[in-house]
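Subgroup meeting minutes
Present: P.N., E.W., G.H.
Scribe: E.W.

1. P.N. recapped why we're keeping a running log of single-chain structure predictions: easier to compare across weeks, and new members can see raw inputs and outputs side by side.
2. G.H. added today's entry (342 aa).
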Amino acid sequence: MNTLRVGLIGAGGISHVHAAAWRELGARVSVHSHVGAEALAEQYGFTLAPSLDELLAAVDIVDIVTPSNTHRDLALAAIAAGKHVVCEKPLATTAEAAREIVAAAQAAGVQVYPAHVVRFFPDYSKVEEQVTAGRIGTPAVLRFVRGGEAPRSGSWFFDESAGGGIVLDQMIHDLDQALWLAGPVTEVYAVQSPASVNGRVPEVVTAHVVLTHAGGAISHVQGTWGARGTVFRTSADIAGTAGVLAIDSGIDTPTLLEVPENGDAHGYLPPAAHAESPYTTQLREIAEAFAGGPVPRVTPADGIRAVALAEAAAESLRTGRVVGVDLAAAVAGPEVKASVEA
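Output recorded in log:
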């Protein structure tokens, strides 16, 4: 592969794992951000781009790591300039905006992918392999838990118009996992405690989203932004018709597969000892797709579907009701070609 020419837009907290990954991949990176670009460029040995136009003129790939409500406009600007785009989750704050991004990329002949990095964590990717292989039969009940210290007090994360709150920002990882493992969803119900007030999410908060899948499975997703010092922890439990698969980042052996005895003595999956950062794995796979390689494990359609579920959860929080969803319609708007499903 030729040297990657990457434009990194944004210099907040998540920018550092992207920056480290691009450096690991040997990319030539330009950085543009209203705040923090100079320090980020100096830390990682990148080039500073004083303006967005200058960044777009210097790169082939644009990596967007800015607040969620800026993703649409930045992605459309990069696509209009003929650049491939990788965008931190969520792809946009609404499914309509996400479809607009995908349609624009299709029309321009470039590629766009959402950065759903949890698909690239070894434990989660191994879970998907085991479920797809039928090791636990048909998934029936799935439970995902994700929690840790809340973002910086007063930041945009708590503004539902900017970041979408805990569901769109944090829990979208596990909404995506539920779709990955159990397929399309038809109904969504959500609760949050404490409730948001005037569009502001409380700074210590827990939300629960229950998904009814088209195939009959039920997924429960729990997310928490905790008090200062709360240790980050994730877990997933998938009960199927032939066994149970569980992962938990907080135990020494984080992944356990329990199935009826079948002569296979290897009940435990590999532990989460990351030989490579999942962010590096993710960006390598996406960069290879940009260069003509296979479609990565996360597609544009995945990005749209995850946002559509988060939107449905937000509606459920507002109304207190179960919300029906049609994910096929959410993805295949009139402006999006069927190839988005590839």
